[in-house]
């Protein structure tokens, strides 16, 4: 009978810790599951996002709404012609930045074709021109 009359001075917190860990696990899973499927509105950027580059070395590649290509202000007949002109520029200046300017009505594939040409040539400093947001 001695053991039954003993008072309990300590509290067993193990079940409470288990409950907190389960709740923490559920919270982590639910917050990471909610991140998927984020909608974005492209292509707008802030003025601070533009990086200052040396103007004479920049090569601007423009794709208009009909899919016509221009290197700086000169018309380019095809992707192969663009690749040969960029290769000659790369031979003179190995590390030059390129800016791809695409009309908002341009097919995305035309921009990807230009980016593939830049990737084949090993041009790593590539920028995509965007319009400033209208706030």
Fold and architecture overview:
This protein has 135 residues and is an alpha/beta fold. It has a domain at 47-128: Nucleotidyltransferase, domain 5, CATH 3.30.420.270. It contains three helices and five strands; from the N terminus they run αβββαβαβ. The chain has helices at residues 14-33, 79-92, 108-121, and strands at 59-63, 69-71, 74-76, 98-102, 126-128. Helix 2 runs parallel beside helix 3. 7% of the residues are buried.
Q: What are the segments in which pLDDT stays under 50 over at least 5 consecutive residues?
A: none
Distance between the termini: 81 Å
**SSE order, as H and E?**
HEEEHEHE
Helical segment count: 3
**Main sheet: strands, sense, barrel:** 5 strands, mixed
What top-tier CATH class of the domain at 47-128 fits best?
Alpha Beta
**Total strand segments:** 5
Shape annotation: elongated
Q: Give the fraction of residues assigned to helices.
A: 25-40%
Mean pLDDT: 77
CATH topology of the domain at 47-128: Nucleotidyltransferase, domain 5
Q: What is the CATH architecture term of the domain at 47-128? A: 2-Layer Sandwich
